[in-house]
Amino acid sequence: MATLKDIARKLDLSITQVSRALNDHSDVAEETRLRVKTTAHAMNYHPNASARKLVSGRSGIVGLVVPQRRDLGQDGIFLEVVAGLSAQFSGRGMQFVLHLQSETEPTLPVYQKLIGKALLDGFVLIDPQDHDPRIDFLRKSGIAFVVHGRSGDIIDYPYFDIENEQLAHDLAHYLLQRGHRRIAFLNGVAGSSYVTVREAGYLRALHAAGVPPQPGFHLNGDMDEANGLTDTIRLFTGDAPRPTAIICGNVRLARGVYQALAALGLSVPGDVSVVAHDDELPSLRASAFFPALTVTKAPLRDSWEPLADCLAGAIEGKPLGSLQRIGRYSLIERNSVASV
Q1: Do residue 70 and residue 25 come from a single domain?
Q2: What phi, psi does 13 have (nearest 5°)?
Q3: Does 106 share its domain with 152?
Q4: 205-247: per-residue pLDDT in tens?
Q5: Is the bond leading into 291 cis (omega within 30 degrees of zero)?
Q6: Residues 287-318: tens digit of each pLDDT
Q7: Could you read off the pLDDT of 256-270 as tens digits, one per residue?
Q8: In sequence order, what are the beta bridge partners of 218?
Q9: CA 58, CA 235: separation in Å to the nearest integer?
Q10: Are 274 and 308 part of one and the same domain?
Q11: 18: domain CATH number?
């Protein structure tokens, strides 16, 4: 691998001149800067993180810590997260590293260890929990971080999020306007902050319409096809009132719901209306369902650029107000809802 000395020798420049050109110092002529960067790229030069840290105080490296799972390599959402963030940070001249936390490792010591090595400039946090201890820990440590979502009573840190409380309200309100009063909600794993606020939005819509929530109609769990199927079977088993409509936390749950309803001899939307939130994963299109699925849509891929922007800005010390961003979602009506 090429070094600064190799580039300097090839261009007949000093090592200092090469270093300052690569780090975009203002006293370097534009022609020299371009020549140095072109040669560095051609020679496959990559800066040493420790050396860069000594010169600039920054390593140019940010990290993501996730718990190790057996099925992690087959998790399409996880792969989308890693690929998207990696591409965005790479485009900013930064390196993105993934740390897999073993099942026996407690969470906060993992961050403490990584911070102690002084090679990371900041962290991306995903799937924040209610009153997430990682946020308090990183806030007190003084290291830059950005959260995909929000958690806690005081939101004094960089984040990118969508209005999860409002989108759940909108889905429930959409069904209520069409006469549905027995509306089930297949939500995510309890304790995740977005799951908590989505439940609040669902309940707010029911309360505003004067509809009491039905016992057993709000179900938590992994948002996958298997849970969509089994939860739907549970909703339609026994003597309790059955829902006329189901809200799904994502499209994977909705696919399981469709399969279960078909197995039960029930039609969408003739017997049961179904709506979902759509992260627009490439492998699962809500418009390809039969009948096509009504959704709130906020593509997951739209998160990576603002998350990278916000973390890079936090590292540079930009004002907090510019590092807190809310993404948009849209309600798309298709053919999976009937009035009652």
Answers
A1: no
A2: -120, 165
A3: yes
A4: 999 999 999 999 999 999 999 999 999 999 999 888 999 999 9
A5: yes
A6: 999 999 999 999 999 999 999 999 999 999 99
A7: 999 999 999 999 999
A8: 185
A9: 54
A10: no
A11: 1.10.260.40
